[in-house]
């Protein structure tokens, strides 16, 4: 394993510590999906994207990321703060009154790194397409990344956007679906089956690839592959297999930790499994 | 009273089309999006002039709002176009989260608003859009009265930073606004001065208010007519200045009486200067098929209805 991957894994462990501590701190929030998407977001912000933590809304000349499933805000906030967008001490204010780190991400409180509000599901793919079109108009050759939950694909707007992007050759867009198979009321296949996602997106005209989302080496390689597939006339879709709650054994494999906070003993149990590498907030 | 005449009738949506083309000429960041209604929204001239700055999204209004919000990131100034019903009610949540709450510089341009859409009937005749849009924090809400004012408003909102809802209609209506009149967002237009009653109108009912004003004058009643083209932010100063003189009000709008211009005016009055107010508006019902003229008559949204309301308001002054 290269030094880079070891370093990214260390950051991911710290981000996971942040997530469980944030959700514990306010006794509210969504740890399961956040933990599952940690490796992806760490790879994106610490290895893959060209981005500037001094932050301006337009992000000219930068790669942009949009979180569509806004409830996994803990992982987003942790990664943003630890990449230098704002002081990590602010993570302690998560979901508390008078805070910029709202329950779901918003531009309204002026937190650096957030370019769109999300929380009401299904809107982020359209927004990502818009940002990608804007980059093309501006002659800006950087990329737009979006992340979606698999349950979120039950929203109809996703399929409006899925139809639009290939038709209009939006090939500077790399969308990722976190396929953890869980949603609030139970497994996706029980609540509302998504069917063959690869076949569905391919039928619309997407370039589709699959990726294991909880192995840092594979995530970095997968994202590099996705970038190599971009710019060829098609939008790129990554179907990313993750485990909800990844990194915390008692949270893994069940929808029960979608939106539940750990108690004091559970927090300690989680932290005992996650080495501290960069210092807690 | 000030006399108004007209030599030409034109649809307000054509004013939007002309304004969009002009806004596009003035600023290369202006882009247009449409959900399969290019002809209805009169967007073809813009498309001919700037094909690379036009996005056809198909019949997918939610996606259109999201794409527009995304295009602001990068500095574009998106104008979305579809019928008022599909511009608001169908995509309220998309506007709420991705545009208003996110404070994105999107111009939501809505044609075929209200009953005067006509024969298509109630499914297409939204009468709640002003209310929905004005309830969104940070949203500017504009409802111009004729071709010239719609054109001027379209140019003005391109220069205004922030989310805007621009509402216009389908039928042809008299052009009485001077072509060179400057459109100032949030600033009411004093159409005609009077002393006995204030008629506050918006959209094409401003012309009906002018007709009502003439009829009232013939009856010996002096009416003041104010065009509130900007529902939000509301020009409270102009309203209070007029009402402090006339001591009674008629509001006129092609909208449900709940949640529209009338309610905005009532809030100002109840806080500052409680006086009798009469509503000329749709009385909390859906519309139906018919010609615009038939519907205006049946739902009492015309000059005779404004005259009757003015008489009632004056009577209530006691």
* H-E string of chain A: HHHEHHEHEEEHHEHEH
CATH C-level class of chain A: Alpha Beta
Portion in beta strands of chain B: 15-25%
Count of folded domains of chain A: 1
Helix amount of chain A:
25-40%
Structure description:
- The complex is a heterodimer of chains A (281) and B (318).
- Chain A is an alpha/beta fold and 281 residues long.
- Chain A has helices spanning 3-26, 31-36, 38-48, 73-82, 124-137, 156-167, 188-191, 197-204, 216-229, 264-272, and strands at residues 64-67, 144-149, 173-179, 182-183, 186-187, 207-212, 236-241.
- Chain A has a single domain (3-271), classed as Rossmann fold.
- Chain A is built from 10 helices and 7 strands.
- In chain A, the strands form 2 sheets. In chain A, strands 1-2-3-7-6 form a 5-stranded parallel sheet, sandwiched between helices. In chain A, strands 4-5 form a two-stranded antiparallel sheet.
- Chain A is globular and about 50 Å long.
- Chain B has 318 residues and is an alpha/beta fold.
- Chain B has 2 domains: 9-174, Rossmann fold, CATH 3.40.50.970; 189-317, 3-Layer(aba) Sandwich (Rossmann fold).
- Chain B is globular, with a radius of gyration of 19 Å.
- Chain A binds chain B through residues 57-60, 64, 66, 106-108, 115-120, 122-135, 137-138, 140, 156-157, 160-161, 163-164, 168, and chain B through 31, 52-53, 55, 57-58, 60, 62-76, 78, 93-94, 96-98, 101-104.
């Amino acid at each position: 394993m290269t030094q880079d991957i070891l370093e990214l894994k260390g950051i991911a462990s710290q981000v996971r510590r942040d997530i469980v501590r944030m959700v514990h701190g306010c006794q509210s929030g969504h740890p399961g999906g956040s933990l599952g998407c940690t490796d992806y977001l760490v790879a994106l912000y610490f290895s893959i994207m060209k981005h500037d933590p001094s932050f301006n809304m337009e992000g000219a000349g930068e790669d942009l990321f949009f979180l569509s499933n806004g409830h996994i805000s803990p992982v987003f906030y942790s990664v943003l703060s630890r990449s230098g967008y704002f002081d990590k001490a602010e993570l302690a204010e998560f979901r508390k009154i008078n805070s910029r780190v709202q329950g779901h991400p918003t531009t309204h409180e002026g937190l650096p790194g957030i370019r769109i509000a999300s929380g009401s599901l299904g809107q982020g793919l359209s927004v990502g397409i818009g940002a990608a079109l804007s980059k093309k108009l501006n002659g800006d050759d950087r990329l737009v990344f979006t992340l979606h939950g698999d349950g979120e694909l039950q929203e109809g707007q996703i399929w409006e956007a899925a139809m639009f992007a290939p038709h209009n050759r939006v090939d500077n867009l790399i969308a990722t679906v976190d396929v953890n198979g869980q949603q609030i009321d139970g497994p996706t296949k029980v609540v509302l089956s998504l069917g063959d996602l690869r076949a569905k997106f391919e039928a619309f005209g997407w370039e589709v690839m699959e990726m294991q989302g909880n192995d840092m080496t594979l995530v970095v390689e997968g994202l590099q592959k996705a970038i190599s597939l971009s710019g060829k006339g098609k939008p790129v879709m990554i179907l990313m297999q993750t485990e909800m709650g990844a990194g915390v054994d008692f949270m893994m494999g069940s929808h029960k930790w979608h939106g539940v906070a750990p108690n004091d003993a559970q927090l300690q149990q989680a932290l005992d499994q996650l080495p501290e590498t960069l210092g807690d907030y | 009273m000030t006399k108004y005449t007209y030599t030409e009738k034109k649809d307000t949506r054509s004013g939007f089309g002309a304004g969009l083309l002009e806004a596009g000429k003035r600023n290369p960041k202006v882009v247009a999006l449409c959900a399969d209604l290019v002809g209805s929204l009169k967007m073809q001239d813009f498309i001919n002039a700037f094909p690379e700055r036009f996005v056809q999204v198909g019949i997918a209004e939610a996606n259109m709002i999201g794409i527009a919000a995304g295009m602001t990131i990068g500095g574009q100034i998106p104008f979305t176009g579809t019928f008022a019903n599909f511009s608001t009610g169908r995509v309220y949540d998309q506007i709420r989260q991705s545009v208003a709450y996110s404070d994105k510089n999107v111009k939501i341009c809505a044609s075929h608003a209200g009953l005067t859409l006509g024969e298509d009937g109630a499914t297409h005749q939204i009468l709640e859009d002003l209310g929905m849009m004005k309830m969104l924090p940070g949203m500017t809400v504009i409802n111009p009265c004729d071709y010239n004012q719609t054109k001027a408003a379209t140019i003005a909102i391109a220069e205004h930073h922030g989310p805007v809802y621009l509402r216009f209609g389908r039928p042809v209506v008299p052009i009485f606004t001077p072509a060179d009149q400057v459109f100032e967002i949030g600033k009411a237009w004093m159409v005609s001065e009077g002393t006995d009653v204030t008629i506050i109108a918006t959209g094409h009912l401003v012309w009906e208010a002018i007709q009502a004003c003439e009829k009232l004058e013939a009856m010996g009643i002096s009416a003041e007519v104010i065009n509130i083209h900007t529902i939000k932010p509301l020009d409270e100063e102009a309203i209070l200045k007029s009402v402090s003189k006339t001591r009674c009000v008629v509001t006129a709008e092609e909208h449900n009486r709940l949640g529209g211009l009338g309610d905005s005016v009532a809030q100002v009055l109840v806080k500052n200067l409680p006086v009798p107010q009469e509503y000329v508006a749709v009385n909390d019902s859906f519309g139906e098929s018919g010609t615009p003229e038939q519907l205006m008559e049946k739902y009492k949204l015309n000059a005779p209805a404004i005259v009757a309301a003015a008489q009632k308001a004056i009577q209530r002054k006691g």
